[in-house]
Amino acid sequence: MIKVVIIGAGNVATHLYQSFSKSKQLDVIQVFNRNKQHLYFVEDPTKRVSSLEAIQEADLYLIAIRDEAIEEIAEKLDSKNGIVAHTSGSQPLTILSKFENYGVFYPLQTFSKNKAVNFREIPLCLEANSEKNLNFLKKIASRISDRVFEVNSDQRKALHVSAVFINNFSNHLFTLAADFCKKEELPFDILRPLIKETVNKLESLDPYSAQTGPALRNDQKTIAAHLEMLDEDRKKIYTILTESIQNLHGKKL
Amino acid sequence: MIKVVIIGAGNVATHLYQSFSKSKQLDVIQVFNRNKQHLYFVEDPTKRVSSLEAIQEADLYLIAIRDEAIEEIAEKLDSKNGIVAHTSGSQPLTILSKFENYGVFYPLQTFSKNKAVNFREIPLCLEANSEKNLNFLKKIASRISDRVFEVNSDQRKALHVSAVFINNFSNHLFTLAADFCKKEELPFDILRPLIKETVNKLESLDPYSAQTGPALRNDQKTIAAHLEMLDEDRKKIYTILTESIQNLHGKKL
After folding, report:
1. Touching check for B153 and chain A: CB below 8 Å?
2. Pairwise CB contact (< 8 Å): A176 & B244
3. A137, A216, A233, B143: which has the fewest C-beta neighbours closer than 10 Å?
């Protein structure tokens, strides 16, 4: 059994804990958080620890906390024989260089506390300070996911900012649209099939080829009519994204 | 059998033709397009017509052409006994007021020529110049879709601009992210699970509650690091959308 300690109690830590717990080859021996009450998701209370000194020997220590706190935790954590890895998309590998064995174990996914995810489909992006450690992380990663990638720090940064465009920003566009429809007394449900098809299309088309709409067609009349309906905030977004579509697809405003 | 004539040969016309052809209660007697060669999708060549004068008596004439051309076609089309309806999200009902019976039959979906869609799931947004005509359109719509909505012209306009935010703009964000990853030699496939989950989440959460990311957390360090990696075009988009998320969720930059 590979012994794992998880450090953190947020969305990523919770989902990793749940996924690791399902694997017979992995044993989550402890989960650390300063406030023990946030560790209610750990079934066995003896595995909940709130002091770094109480952390036992393990093969892997996974630091799954917010980016700003990683450095501090790494500083306070005693040197370990096992691999110490963080799960951040934006932090460099070297933030953990005080340890002998260290790496990155970045799940490229959006997590919400009350929404189950299928970890087998989540890309796990790995990096380590040695070939041996990388192979060890690969071994663990393949126990929980079918999509294991070796990704260097620059590539990981690119993925992280891409994830913001894909998830955070498009979700915000959905929010703005839902809000706009609500004002016209239209249910969000009426928009769901369109959201679904936007994504389903990408199973057979790449997003560049899937592009449609007034910006692509350079349909100035529709663009003007749309702008007239929008508040200042949405108007700015509409204009910038319309320009960007036209730039990329070689149209002129 | 309800007799239908479809006017147009684009994506919407093609998909409507295919969907109508499957219903035993609907008979597409003709499809019109100025250039007959674009009507190759109509199996029976005798149903392909390229002159408006050749259009026969029908119960419904569906004008499924680009917005700018609707007025001209309506002008040239002889007055009809059947209902004349257009399929545009942005054009008013009254653009067809020269006819005695007229309406709107707007499918809220994104269509690509080579991508089949399940019409039963597509919201059909209907409007008509009389209760009787509205009921007739409802009867036809329910033959091909399980989601039939009565939507007035203002609401339809709101849906149309919402569709741009949901489909066109988020698809463009996917394109920018894919392009950015390509430069880092990362395959688009690595982003697919995130795109899927962005949408799957909305089955159990509304988009406002599903929002995550550095903008929502007001994580200035990550935001600054992201901006540094982006070109001018993406930087503008990133800034505007980050501001908009923070405005909506009540955070301060």
Report:
1. no
2. yes
3. A233
